[in-house]
Structure formats: structure tokens, C-alpha cells
């Protein structure tokens, strides 16, 4: 039972308002290691606000965020990264002109050992390329053969794979994916879904935000339903059909 485990990332009573608009109204959420927690909801349900509060992009007005059983305060995204939480936003935030390895280490560049790194501040490009290739291989990504090729030469699915690989390489506890298959075709979507399953197999907690209900029901272990800024319930693909989940999401049924 998941209730006997400590969530890798959790929140209690999250509240976030924007003037008179209520983004979150007392939301609880639990994500566990080695599982995929999907977050679904209609437009304006508070999905993005919830994710941003959990990852330091927004500061909640009230409530508590808990990482590995300890209360934490995220004032900025870097605070969440320091806690082992990586986020892949829908916009990807990759640098098209840079190669795959440089994108994986963007903002985390490693210097060469010894005086070359400490005094002359030379980057360890060879080492970063080697470790980037290992990260891509560990996730089973076979569509990217050349770590040195610029990201702008990759397909949409390959770019998404680069973003996921970067999150997996540095997200030691939790990876948050915001609409990872939104702009992809069937084949590339399936590749990304396979990556999500690989993250779960590697023991990471995965939070998946998606409008694509078939994808959610394919990979999710549990499904957190957001409605009008509140949690409408937590269901599973085994306990509820896709139609029943959508009914809860739209208010036509209760969880």
C-alpha cells in the first residue's frame, strides 16, 4: 500500500491566488518513488499552478511542501533542483544552436580537472559528452546517435528526449513532465511514453501533466484529478475507466 511509504514529493493545503482568481484552493498531493502520478484537469483547473508551486516557479500563499518527509520551502526553481526535482516544461527550454551534450549540461557545465579548470576555467567538453552519451544510453534512447549534433537538427520527439534525459540525469528524486507529448506524432509520442516508463523503472517519482487521456491511462499508476482549483480525487486506471475519469474532471461525476 502506498500509504505506508513516504512520498518523495508531497503537498498539503496548497493555496495560490492571483488577485481575485483562485489558482489553488487547499490542494493535497502525493508522489512516490517508482510510480507515475498523472495530473489531469480541464483548462483553468490549476494543473500548471500546482506544478509551478511544487517546482519553485511559484511560491504558494499557504500550505506545505514536503520532500522525502521533510518540509521544504522553494523560493525559486533552483531550490527544487537542489532537492532533486527536475521539470520539463511544454516549451522544452532547449538551446537549438547547441549540441545535445551542451544542452544536457546547460547551466551545469563542468570544468576540466586541475589548473586547466580552476585557473583557466576550461570546460571539460570531452567528459560532458561522454557522460551525456551515458545518460542517453541509460534511458534507452536509440534515436539520438550523435551527441555532438546541434539540437536544431533533431525532430520534435528527439528534442523532447533530450529534455527528458537532462531531467533524468540531474533529477535524483522526482521528474515533472508538463505535456511531454503535446506536439508529437504517434511514433514519437510512444517513444516519450517509453522514456516515462524507464524513469519509473529507474526508481524516480514521475509527475505527468497531460491532456491526452489515452496516454495517461497507458502509463499512470495513479491519477490526481484537478477541478476548479481543488483536488476532485485520486483514481487509478484500474479503478476508473477513461470516461469515468473525464466525468470526474468535468464535474459530471464524483470520485
TrEMBL record:
Molecular function as annotated in GO: ATP binding; ATP hydrolysis activity
Top-level taxon of origin: Bacteria
Matches recorded under Pfam families: ABC_tran (PF00005)
All copies of domain ABC transporter, residue ranges: 9-253
InterPro entries per record: AAA+_ATPase (IPR003593), ABC_carbohydrate_import_ATPase (IPR050107), ABC_transporter-like_ATP-bd (IPR003439), ABC_transporter-like_CS (IPR017871), P-loop_NTPase (IPR027417)
Statement: the UniProt record of this protein carries the keyword ATP-binding: yes
Keywords, comma-separated and alphabetical: ATP-binding, Nucleotide-binding
PANTHER family hit by this protein: CARBOHYDRATE TRANSPORT ATP-BINDING PROTEIN MG119-RELATED, SUGAR ABC TRANSPORTER ATP-BINDING PROTEIN
Name recorded for this polypeptide: Fructose transport system ATP-binding protein
Higher taxonomy: Bacteria, Bacillati, Actinomycetota, Actinomycetes, Jiangellales
